Structures are given as C-alpha cells and as structure tokens.
Amino acid sequence: MPTTLLAFLGACTLIAASPGPSTVLIIKQSLHSRRSGFLTVLGNETGVFIWGVVAAFGLTALLTASEVAYDVMRVVGAVVLVGFGIQALRQARRAKGADDDVWQGAPKSGWHSYRGGLLLNLANPKAAVFAMSFLPQFVPEGAPHLPAMVGLAALWAVYEVGYYGLYVWFVGRLKSVLSRAGVRRRLEQVSGGVLLLLGVRMALEG
Length: 206
Description:
Blueprint: H1 2-17, H2 21-30, H3 34-56, H4 60-65, H5 67-94, H6 101-104, H7 110-122, H8 125-134, H9 145-173, H10 175-178, H11 181-204
C-alpha cells in the first residue's frame, strides 16, 4: 500500500505539473489576490473530486461511449475557455494607460473565484475521461473498488490543493513586481491569449 500511494502521488505531481487551462486560470486569479487564487484552486479541486467520484461509479464510461455527449461537453468547455480568455483580454485593454487602481475594480466575491475554478474543471470532458483511466490503475488488488476510488479521488484533490497553493504563494511573493500595472497588463494579455487558444483548440478537436 505505501508503494502504491507513493506511485500515486508521484503521478499526481506529474499531472499537476503539466500546464493546462486550470494552471493558467489559477495564476491569473492569483494576480488579483492570494485569496482569489486559493479559492480558484479549491474550485478546481472540487471538480477533480467530483470527476473522481463519477469515475468511481463508472458514469464517465457513458461519456466516453457517447460521441454526442462528449462533443456537447467539448463545445461547452471550449465556450468556457474562450469566455475566460476574452474576459482577461478585455480587462487588460481597459487598464491600458491607466493607473494600478484600475486593476482593483469592484471587489469580487469568493464565490466568483471558486465558481470559476469549478466551472473550468467540470466543463472539460478530458478531465472526466482522464479520471476514469487514471484512478483505477492505483486501486490495490483485493480492495473494494468504490471506496478505494473515492479515497484516491479525495487524496488527488487534497494533494493538488497543496501543489497549486505553491503557485498562489509564489505569485504573492512576487507581488511587488507583479503589482505594476504594465506587468500585470502583460500577464493578463498572455493568460487571456492562452485560454483563448486552448478554447479554440478544444472546439476544433474531433
């Protein structure tokens, strides 16, 4: 069991280290505040746990088997990504030539950040399919399948909270540099462009 857990955590590290939409959104939200970044992490990991539980019950197999269901989720996910990308680009454009106060704007609720992370994860059909193929590999032989899968999903989510929390902390440590309006505007442009391209790519995938 310890060997299995170590292998599982090692795999979780590799997954989290692979850049993707969630990483971009977490960094983007962390530019505003550590609170926003961390709540985005919590939202994302709630999505990870939900997909893990869905996979434990075998429901993601239906998504894989149904081309229509997968395509619907793929389009929804693409729209969500494009929406986040456009939002970031618009914010960067509005702040062009303005002082740093423009970045603050009206304070957003914690629910807004949490919902963003959750929505981005749940709208990604690849996350569902990946959970179904990833978690069963680490269920110990002879262990009850359902409780083991749910337990691994919870461990995966908690582990990634810690991992992505480091991103939030790191961005916060660089606040003196990143708080400059020009730097933040450029980072918003980059993150917005990346999210937009990822959304377009998802929409075009067959």
